[in-house]
Amino acid sequence: MYSVYDIANWFLANKEKITNKKIQKLVYYAYSWHLVLNNESSDDIGTRLFENKFEAWVHGAVYPDLYVKYKENGSAPLPKYDGEIPEFSEDDIDVLNQVLEVYGDYTGNELESICHQEDPWIKAREGLNVYDPSHNPIEDVNIFKCYSARL
Question: Within its chain, how far is the Cα of 106 from the centroid?
């Protein structure tokens, strides 16, 4: 299993002009698609890309510690990562490449808009107003149901 930072670093090493908002969404979609492609049902989710839970913030799915790490960059692009990256399995690299291919050309704001239209984020924010802060987790079962329906 990897860390959320391993996944973020992979994207930062392989794509230019990634903002804090965009890295949040790319890592979220990598987590989501990995979850769907490596588990049989929402009742038995045992395989995850990493253990961290995303929260349903106003601007979409966010992993708080990753946000804090890059917060000082504001909306400027993050520096390209040139450090060591763990050896990913072939299947995991395939998922990361597909996420980059599908979502990589969107801006952070466009990815936020996409996330706002999807059930996992919507369900985690039930009962909240649009700009209410939230630390509600985006549940794996909702992620699995949403994205497995798209396969």
Answer: 14
